[in-house]
């Protein structure tokens, strides 16, 4: 009996050690103890990011461990773990989430002349807590046989009676739409943003469901005529290997709204060094790598995002859509206005 108890305890200990090792991304028992490594907490859901980590490892010899989750769970985890966190870098798909992380005291301000030079001012925190790494525009995607391009102008114009029952976008729980609204609060004021949201809900073709790609498929099928969605999904769909997605991406057209007024809404994936990182220098080196020409080219050619580093040319697909004027705001406002945006969306019945 006693021997059996010892065996059970021994097995439990082995399981605990194995689980701890897996969580740390340490799979090799014979690993060099001098091996430098960093741990990235990432919200980005793109498989192509692994190539970036491999490139960084090859260039620097620093091993990258990855923990993937939603932005809110990652922020909560950093808060709960405090000084004990294994994280060095927080990487998210929405710059507003990093502004919220900064305000919750989860990030470390860094001094990087390289980042200050290669990230335009609108795409980084003024105090060095976070930096945009790749950008995407949230645009109108329409069916050219059902929509005359001359009928398109601004986001706000979609609330006119002509668009009743013809517009789709995803739900208000989605951070991309929350940040779209947060930007509208900034450029149109509270009332303008509210009028847009309530008018848009009135013109929805259906109750919001599915991701950005599902909105494009709704337009292809005739369920709706216009979708509000992110640019890079068109590239991702074209390269998905899925016949329906390819058909949607090839036949639908993309329109940059609010040219000549408040500009098209642009958001960015962004990265910051975790406040309690045990390797802030390596973490900074990783973020600088994300802004290097190699990494920036990868973002645009493999995930169809806009490079943030202005020295890097856009992928040919992005060039084919043409240039556009973005909103003139610092992306910090996406985080600052997030609660207000959610409140308005809730009040107007955007589900
Ligand atoms: Fe996405």
Task: Give an account of the 3D structure.
The chain is of the alpha/beta class. It folds into two domains: 37-134 and 268-316, D-Maltodextrin-Binding Protein, domain 2; 136-265 and 335-347, Periplasmic binding protein-like II (D-Maltodextrin-Binding Protein, domain 2). Helix content is 45%, strand content 15%. It is built from 14 helices and ten strands. The chain has helices at 2-23, 49-60, 71-81, 95-103, 113-118, 175-203, 212-221, 232-238, 243-251, 280-290, 293-302, 316-321, 332-336, 338-347, and strands at 37-42, 63-68, 89-92, 107-108, 131-142, 167-168, 226-230, 253-255, 265-274, 306-307. Strands 1, 2, 3, 4, 5, 6, 7, 8, 9 and 10 form a ten-stranded mixed beta sheet that branches. Strand 1, helix 2 (49-60) and strand 2 (63-68) form a beta-alpha-beta unit. The protein starts with a helix and ends with a helix. Residues 1-29 have low confidence and may be disordered.
